Amino acid sequence: MLKRSKFETTQSQIMHRAEDLISAASNRYRITVQVANRAKRRRYEDFENNEDAIMKPVLRAIIEMSDELNQPEIIGEL
User: Fold this and answer.
1) Contact assessment for residue 59 and residue 38, using Cβ atoms and an 8 Å cutoff
2) Contacts of 75 (CB under 8 A, 6+ apart)
3) Burial class, 46, CB count within 10 angstroms (exposed 0-12 / middle 13-18 / buried 19+)
4) According to DSSP H, which parts of the chain are helical?
5) C-alpha R_g of the chain
6) What does the pLDDT read at residue 1?
7) Are 38 and 61 in contact (CB under 8 A)?
8) Which of 11, 24, 26, 76 is deepest in the core (most CB within 10 A)?
9) What is the E.C. number (predicted)?
10) Rounded to an integer, what distance in angstroms lies between the CA atom of residue 27 and that of residue 33?
């Protein structure tokens, strides 16, 4: 029996976003470490805020980073 996800992004969309991140990166290892670090940071932020996370931190990090890649205007001026 398959378990349905509670968020709108499907597994195939996540895989496509992850592939986009890896293909846009100059170094596969570095982008993997960046995703892991962001997920780790988000995990601790969620833990400190006592929020019940619907989406796992790694999936959230992949989605956020692919959105930043596709829509650079959401990052803003640095």
Assistant:
1) no
2) 68
3) middle
4) 11-24, 28-48, 57-70
5) 14
6) 46
7) yes
8) 24
9) 2.7.7.6
10) 10
- Token reading at 21: 């991140």
3-state secondary structure of 5: coil
**Over the stretch 4-51, which tens digit does the pLDDT of each residue have?**
555 556 888 999 999 999 998 889 999 999 999 999 988 877 666 666
Position 55, amino acid: M
Identity of residue 42 = R
CB 20 within 8 A of CB 66: yes
